[in-house]
Write a structure and sequence with these properties.
By secondary structure, the protein is mainly alpha-helical. The protein contains three helices and no strands. It has one domain. The longest helix has 9 residues. 0% of the residues are buried. This is Enoyl-CoA hydratase. InterPro entries: ClpP/crotonase-like_dom_sf.
Length: 30
């Protein structure tokens, strides 16, 4: 959980990608 919060502060998108499935992850990555 701590890692998620840290990522959220650095890059909110990173947290979303990690939370979302691979399909969404690829879409967010691009």
């Amino acid at each position: 959980m701590f890692e998620m919060i840290k990522y959220n502060k650095d890059n909110g998108i990173a947290t979303i990608t990690l939370n979302r499935p691979a399909k969404f992850n690829t879409l967010r990555s691009y």
